[in-house]
């Protein structure tokens, strides 16, 4: 079985990008709980879009869980090769380390184009059985991905902010 992930970027978090905030630590711990829950359901492959914020936390959580459950696989699903091009050096370096640790990296489009992030999210949902989401109930790409997964009949494992 396959588990996909969707979630908000740092600007949607009450703590912004401050990962030292206890609420961020709590979110990271809860992601590990949800990953273990998905694994108990039979998920072995975890798909991640590798964006800033929730995606980064999710990828790191899967890698931590993989240390004690080596059968778990992390697949990066990138919308385009230049996804991280405009990020800070620190974020680009973190992204590169995560990509290097993935079991597979899939790039969906040759170059950035309008809508490529949405198409990436839908491609992940189309392959998945389960969706873990970090979602505040509002709109945006995460909301539309959760709605799409619901319409496709995926099992939803939500984390509410």
What does this structure look like?
Helices cover 45% and strands 20% of the residues. With 161 residues, the chain is of the alpha/beta class. The chain has a 6-stranded parallel sheet with strand order 4-3-2-1-5-6, with helices on both faces. It starts with a strand and ends with a strand. The relative contact order is 0.21. The mean pLDDT is 96.
Topology (SSEs and partners):
Layout lengths: L1 E6 L14 H19 L4 E4 L5 H15 L4 E6 L10 H13 L2 E4 L8 H12 L2 E6 L4 H13 L2 E6 L1
Parallel strand pairs: 1-2, 1-5, 2-3, 3-4, 5-6
Strand content bin: 15-25%
The main sheet orders its strands as 4-3-2-1-5-6
Query: How many strands in all?
Result: 6
Residue-averaged pLDDT: 96
Largest sheet composition: 6 strands, parallel
**What percent of residues adopt helix (DSSP H or I)?**
40-55%
- What gross morphology would you assign? globular
In short:
Helices cover 45% and strands 20% of the residues. By secondary structure, it is α/β, with parallel strands linked by helices.
List keywords for this structure.
6 strands; globular; 5 helices; alpha/beta
């Amino acid at each position: 079985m396959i588990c996909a992930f969707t979630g908000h970027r740092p600007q949607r978090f009450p703590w912004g990008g401050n990962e030292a905030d206890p609420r961020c630590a709590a979110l990271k711990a809860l992601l590990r709980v949800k990953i273990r829950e998905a694994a108990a359901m039979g998920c072995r492959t975890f798909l991640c879009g590798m964006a800033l914020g929730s995606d980064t936390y999710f990828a790191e959580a899967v890698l931590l869980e993989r240390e004690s459950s080596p059968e778990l696989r992390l697949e990066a699903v990138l919308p385009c090769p230049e996804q991280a091009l405009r990020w800070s050096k620190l974020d680009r370096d973190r992204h590169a380390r995560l990509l290097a640790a993935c079991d597979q990296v899939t790039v969906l489009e040759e170059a950035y184009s309008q809508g490529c992030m949405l198409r990436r999210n839908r491609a992940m949902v189309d392959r998945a059985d389960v969706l873990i989401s970090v979602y505040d109930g509002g709109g945006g790409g995460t909301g539309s991905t959760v709605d799409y997964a619901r319409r496709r009949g995926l099992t939803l494992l939500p984390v509410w902010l």
